[in-house]
Amino acid sequence: MAVMERPQDYVLRTVEERGVRFIQLWFTDVLGIPKAFNITPAELENALEEGMTFDGSAVDGFSRVQESDVLARPDPNTFQILPNRENGPPVARVFCDVTNLDGTPFEGCSRHVLRRQLERAREKGFSFFAAPEVEYFYFAGEEGRPEPLDQGSYFELTVADLAGNLRRRTVLTLEDMGIPVEYSQHEDAPSQHEIDLRYTDAMSMADTLMTVRLVVKEIAREAGVHATFMPKPLAGVQGSGLHTHFSLFEGDANAFHDEGDEHHLSAIGKAFIAGVLTHAREITAVTNQWVNSYKRLVVGYEAPVYVSWARNNRSALVRVPAPKRGKKESTRIEYRAPDPACNPYLAFAVVLAAGLRGVEDGYELPPEAATNLYELTPEQRAAEGIAALPGSLSEALEEMERSELVAETLGEHVFTWFLRNKRAEWADYKAQVTQFELDRYLSTL
């Protein structure tokens, strides 16, 4: 009987056969900012077996100086040769888990935070899948006011424009890397684009999102263009969201699907939605972590503002798309709050934790939002028990700080550091005098 090749052996063999000269070890800080350092093939076997030591105190949210050294442990299943657009020697990348020197998981590692929740789900017989819709903008240059490259809108079909060509090159590059793209299109705002990724398990998808953001930016940079995942870079138009489709599976069976239900949504699916809704305000600081995130979450620009669910109502926070005919596996929920500048590991972790809490405790799903929630008065929404998402980063942090669920999900290290970092961001923002204030008040007050 043939012996199955170990993933690390496949990596070593591929590096040798393809003549790879450098291997980038990728990891992510608490805010979702990518970090990396390079090793040569001579160091690779040792890195795969023992990890590579680095100074964790140099990375925000990682170690304190007196406990600085940590290990980057490559996950051989994430090994990928990067596209070679400059005809240089091949370069590969591999995602790393960060551990303490004794091999135990490091509490500041974002992948570890998500893995803990995936293991909780696995103990209950579930695997967790995600499929995000990634929105972003292209702008001319990097400094000053953002200048859109086009004035297109939804599904605009243009001939040989720069932004469209950049998006197509990006999709082809992702496909070359083994990252399947389901759709790509022009979005509603000028120079806004969207790439929808085919669903896979949540850990692989979080890794993929980190890769997509870097590929989008790198291909734009080569063309002298700035790509940004900033949630709301332009006033008066839609911001960029990360509408993400989630589902639970029990083995090969979709746990959200029930053939006997009128709308084919199982009791598990309903309880999961109820959990996400119940804890939505608590998790928003994680899914929408920047001051600018709350410039997107306002009425009038199609972003979700109110805590509700519906099947075909896009003003709801959670949408339940109709499954494709004859495809039970396509039953899913769409969570519409996150933006593409979040840390995907932490965002997926808190959504999963909220949904599992609903399943574990048997939360009851509230009535579906049948009307356009933006058209209801505050009194009407209050009468129907529909709350709003936090209106600012400060309000979101207050909700998060009170949340036992978020504290448990993130762990003390990440929870404490995240709150401290984000309060500092809010304090810096409050101290600024904006152009809006100057335009509105300077000449009249």
Explain the layout of strands and helices.
Blueprint: H1 7-18, E1 22-28, E2 34-39, H2 41-50, E3 52-55, E4 69-74, E5 80-81, E6 91-99, H3 110-123, E7 127-140, H4 162-176, E8 181-186, E9 192-197, E10 200-201, H5 202-222, E11 225-228, E12 244-250, E13 253-254, H6 267-278, H7 280-287, H8 293-296, E14 306-310, E15 316-319, E16 333-335, H9 344-361, H10 378-383, H11 393-401, H12 404-430, H13 435-441
Parallel strand pairs: 1-6, 14-15
Antiparallel strand pairs: 1-2, 3-4, 4-6, 5-6, 7-9, 7-10, 7-11, 7-12, 8-9, 12-13, 12-16, 15-16
Structure description:
With 445 residues, the protein is an alpha+beta fold. The chain has two domains: 20-104, Ubiquitin-like (UB roll) (Roll); 115-439, 2-Layer Sandwich (Creatine Kinase, Chain A, domain 2), CATH 3.30.590. The protein has helices at residues 7-18, 41-50, 110-123, 162-176, 202-222, 267-278, 280-287, 293-296, 344-361, 378-383, 393-401, 404-430, 435-441; strands at 22-28, 34-39, 52-55, 69-74, 80-81, 91-99, 127-140, 181-186, 192-197, 200-201, 225-228, 244-250, 253-254, 306-310, 316-319, 333-335. The strands form two sheets. Strands 7, 8, 9, 10, 11, 12, 13, 14, 15 and 16 form a ten-stranded mixed β-sheet that branches. Strands 1, 2, 3, 4, 5 and 6 form a six-stranded mixed β-sheet that branches. 43% of the residues are buried.
